[in-house]
Amino acid sequence: MIKAFLFDLDGTLLPMEVDRFLKLYLGDLGQALAPHFPGEQLVEPVVKATYDMIAQPQDGMTNEQGFIAAFTRRTGREWAAYEGPLNDYYAGRFPKLGVHFPPHPMVAGIVKKLKDAGKTLVVATNPVFPDAALRARVCWTGLDPADFAFITTYENSHAAKPHAAYYEEIMAKLGLEPGQCCMVGNDIGEDMLAPMALGMHTFFLNEQPLGDWGEVTPCRGGGYAELDRFIDEVLEAE
Question: Which segments does the entry list as coiled coil (predicted)?
């Protein structure tokens, strides 16, 4: 029996062209930080430190701690000076970017159906943002963060996609086995390969697909309407 549904965020719970989001986000971040640190180019080290963090599980550190270590290494500066302005940005200005990304009309109904059925729901987005930013992004979908038992953030995660350790940590936190979980996502490399290797059920949402299947086939796949029908089948079979 599938007890938990893990949902990717970008291109899954929230329709989004990632390149457009990154352009808007990084431009906005640069504008927000410029008055605090005139003359400093901070967007590039933020991006590079994020990729450093993603590259491998953090070996006992949270992703946040890994990011800070990478940022400090790349800039040669102490993190303390930047922490306050960045936290202020994610709590105040960042949520306003949601106006550019309207929710999909079927998502709220799909989540409500699963919640009403007693399923454990997880926002399994790559944990490269702080909690405040992730909760804001969940709100962009038209959902309430309280709908989810767990939202992966860089404070509460020790690995990132596409590493199997990211998914193993979610299951360990929630006391779940792979066969009790279904990962729903639109990115083959990040959302499908590790879950399939671990033995999870998978649903490849192909309305904004990323990656190439090659010889790999998900358990199921299709658009939002097909996802809704798949969930009906799961619930009817119980």
Answer: none
C-alpha torsion sign, points 146, 149, 154, 160: negative
The dihedral sign for the CA sequence 47, 211, 3, 111: positive
Q: Does 125 lie in the same domain as 171?
A: yes
Is the entire prediction scored with pTM above 0.85?
yes
215: domain CATH number is 3.40.50.1000
Q: Are 162 and 190 in contact (CB under 8 A)?
A: yes
Q: Which helix (H) or strand (E) holds 222?
A: strand 220-222
Starting at the edge strand that comes first in sequence, how are the strands of the sheet with 181-185 ordered?
150-151, 120-123, 4-7, 181-185, 201-205, 220-222
Residues 29 and 50 in one domain: yes
Express each pLDDT in 137-158 by its tens digit. Answer: 999 999 999 999 999 999 999 9
DSSP state of 9: T
pLDDT tens per residue across span 116-139: 999 999 999 999 999 999 999 999
- What is the residue range of 108's domain? 4-16+102-236
Residue 45 sits in the same domain as residue 160: no
In the numeric block, the tokens 């390149």 are attached to 19
- The number of folded domains in the chain is 2
Same domain, yes or no: 113 and 89: no
Q: Which helix (H) or strand (E) holds 204?
A: strand 201-205
